[in-house]
Specification:
433 residues, Growth Hormone, Chain: A, 2 domains, 15 helices, globular
Length: 433
């Protein structure tokens, strides 16, 4: 099937518009890859916090603060954007905010804790807002039966965007180290590279993507904004009738907390436990991205054949194996193997979970139930990294124990998954009126 197959798109949607939409995933993936996963997190702990025992906890609390703000504000901002038909305008604003705050990270040096915390909180907030807004465009572009396929186009392109930004940064770091320049020089430049790629690639989105929504009457605008949080609470209460969906939410909160640890702290673990240098860490994350792209592509076909629940269980056991390898690694080799396994499990576990959520959500209320799904995953992004940070702080920097505790999150996810009955969950969703 041709890429951006017109048969998957709603009437009037052109393929170039979908390319513009998918380019936003290409644009913003460099932020998570370079800033949150490969470069700035280890720089924060080793340079900004000067290797202090509280450095990892400070990093995780910074991410937690940003995610709390995301959880509080994005339901309201999303409702406002829908009511005013302003998703694209707000997307421009969020992009500028993330790009500017990422540029501010270039000014962070040794001991600049306040600036680093502020810039991470702001940049991660605007990044998350942009993620929500681009997701809201998806139903306008894709036919209902092709939502997963079209979403996958953006997901796949995003991996290549992350690898491009990381590759450019790695090239500069290698050159800078050859010149004898320290991390306080090449890490800030990597932040500028990330910001520039984000800004330039997003121009395709703003040039090609259309706003198809229509503004609502002012009374409905006020009502939509005021009702955003109450609607989320009401949906949670009503979801009690869909027990398999609730068990799946609990399962997702557990295993996504573990995945959040890997995303936010893998580079810190590699540096603090195994003594990885910056170039080694960046090469490691580059390999993870390649494995994740391959795993997500191949797994998408496989999970349809064996069933989403069984597929999710398989990947969670893969995550458990990854944590065992990481804990036992005393040389780089086993840790590289753990990284490849993490990459293979990354996209596949998230894909299988989202697919199950779609099966268990009533067809007429997909947006509401996916709102609960987003809330659960955001909560996990707070719980997982903070738990890791607290363990390292309480044990004077024992990262092996902290990654071992992360393995327990994946085991908890497996235990909760046993409560999920796919046939019963689907029947409950289809019986909903």
């Amino acid at each position: 099937m041709a890429i951006f197959d017109p048969q998957a798109l709603n009437p009037g949607v052109r393929r170039r518009e979908v390319l513009g939409w998918a380019m936003y995933d290409f644009a913003n993936s460099g932020y998570t890859t370079v800033v949150l996963t490969a470069v700035f997190n280890a720089y924060f702990v080793g340079v900004v916090a000067d290797g202090a025992s509280w450095g990892t906890l400070a990093w995780t609390l910074t991410l937690a603060l940003s995610n709390v703000l995301v959880m509080l504000a994005t339901p309201l901002l999303g409702a406002w954007a829908d009511a005013h038909a302003a998703k694209k305008r707000l997307l421009v604003f969020s992009t500028l905010g993330c790009v500017a705050a990422t540029c501010a990270l270039a000014g962070v040096g040794r001991g600049d804790l306040a600036l680093a915390v502020a810039a991470i909180v702001v940049s991660n907030f605007f990044y998350a807002l942009g993620e929500q807004l681009t997701a809201a465009f998806l139903p306008e572009l894709a036919r209902r039966e092709a939502l997963g396929r079209v979403s996958g186009w953006g997901w796949s392109l995003g991996y290549f965007g992350g690898m491009l930004t990381l590759g450019l940064s790695l090239g500069y770091v290698l050159w800078a180290q050859g010149q004898g320049l320290p991390a306080t020089h090449f890490v800030p430049v990597s932040m500028l590279i990330t910001a520039v790629v984000y800004a330039l690639a997003s121009l395709a989105t703003f040039a090609l993507l259309k706003e198809r929504a229509r503004p609502q009457p002012e009374a409905r605008v006020r009502g939509a904004t005021a009702e955003a949080w109450s609607r989320l609470r009401r949906t949670w209460k009503e979801a009690a009738r869909y027990r398999d969906f609730r068990w799946l939410l609990a399962c997702a909160a557990a295993y996504q907390a573990g995945i959040s640890v890997v995303i936010a702290l893998a580079a810190i673990y590699a540096a603090e436990v195994l003594g990885f240098q910056q170039t080694q860490t960046m090469a490691l994350i580059f390999l993870v991205n390649i494995a994740a792209a391959a795993g997500a592509f191949a797994f998408g076909y496989w999970q349809d054949r064996i069933g989403h629940r069984r597929a999710l269980a398989f990947t969670l056991w893969g995550w458990v194996g990854m944590t065992v390898l990481a804990v036992m690694a005393t040389t780089p080799g086993p840790f590289w193997a753990a990284a490849v396994l993490a990459g293979l499990c990354m996209g596949s576990s998230q894909s299988a979970g989202r697919a199950l959520a779609g099966l268990f959500a009533p067809p007429a209320r997909l947006a509401e139930f996916y709102g609960l799904w987003t809330f659960a995953t955001r909560l996990s992004a707070i719980v997982g990294p903070v738990t890791y940070g607290l363990v390292t702080w309480a044990t004077s920097g024992n990262h092996r124990l902290a990654i071992g505790a992360t393995g327990l999150l994946f085991l908890l996810g497996l235990a909760l998954l046993t409560k999920v009955d796919v046939a019963r969950g689907q029947a409950a969703a289809q019986a909903s009126t």
